Amino acid sequence: MSALGGPAQTGGVQQPTAIGIVGGLVLIIIALAIAFFVVQMAGLIALIGIIIGGVLVAFGVHFVPVGGAPAAMGQAPGIATGVAMLAAGAGLAGLFGGAWAAEFGLAVALAGGAVGGGLMMAITCLMVNVTYIFGMGIPAASGKVDKDPITGDTFPAYKSQGTEGHGLPFISYVGGVIGGTLGGLGGTLIYLMLLGVYEEVLPVTLNASVEEIAPVAVSLAGIFAVGMFLVNAVLAAYNITGTIEGPHDPKFKRFPRAVIAAAVASAVTGIVAIMLVGVL
């Protein structure tokens, strides 16, 4: 049995099991009920936003091209690092951008987070290809498809024998930017939802003004947002199991299981973050 429900993961696509879906929905409903009981409607809305943010993070991770150690040796396409580490980098860049813009309203903050995450991945993917092409003399060639779905470029003539491809094809670059954008958006949404709850509850709990509790609220929201992002990124990494080239990779079709797992994990961790101030 795998951590996400169903039989152990193989090279194919494992769909979510009925037991996993029903059990996940039950846990989510229980968490929503607790949030409403503890902090009323503010807690309910916040937890829904946290769940949506977690789902965006897990879904976005499946777009990010990750090649791991084989990519570092030019024997697999993607960025030479792990899934969780790369996703965390994009998410944190987006989270910082969104947190900086929080005072300008929800829409501007979410846009700032999305742009921050997408920009980080765009720069990373660009420098990866510069290193591969000009530093290692490796052309971009996918090992999963023979033709780039966007540009129409063909890969077989440029793919070295004995490898799974190499470099960073354009479709992988686009996937990385999309994944970073979704990760930054999701991480920022989690942060803003928690910040809203803390700014509403802490002044009453601590008998202080919003300005006085602002440092505590911002710190707690940031800590929990980063933690929840890492939880969802690691869940997605377990679902991918190894490397992934991007949205054209067959492993991309595994995302429904990660989405369900992320929704449940976000609900459970989110209710803990909300209850931290709700039961004081």
Automatic annotation (TrEMBL):
It is an enzyme of class 7 (translocase). It is found in: Cell membrane. Pathway: One-carbon metabolism; methanogenesis from CO(2); methyl-coenzyme M from 5,10-methylene-5,6,7,8-tetrahydromethanopterin: step 2/2. It catalyses: 5-methyl-5,6,7,8-tetrahydromethanopterin + coenzyme M + 2 Na(+)(in) = 5,6,7,8-tetrahydromethanopterin + methyl-coenzyme M + 2 Na(+)(out). Its main location: membrane. The chain crosses the membrane at residues 18-38, 44-66, 78-100, 106-134, 170-193, 213-238, 258-279. Keywords: Cell membrane, Membrane, Methanogenesis, Methyltransferase, One-carbon metabolism, Transferase, Translocase, Transmembrane, Transmembrane helix. It holds the Pfam family MtrD. Coiled coil: none annotated. Its EC number is 7.2.1.4. The keyword Chaperone does not apply. InterPro entries: MeTrfase_D (IPR005779). It is a multi-pass membrane protein. Part of a complex that catalyzes the formation of methyl-coenzyme M and tetrahydromethanopterin from coenzyme M and methyl-tetrahydromethanopterin. This is an energy-conserving, sodium-ion translocating step. Belongs to the MtrD family. The complex is composed of 8 subunits; MtrA, MtrB, MtrC, MtrD, MtrE, MtrF, MtrG and MtrH. This is Tetrahydromethanopterin S-methyltransferase subunit D. It comes from Methanoculleus frigidifontis.
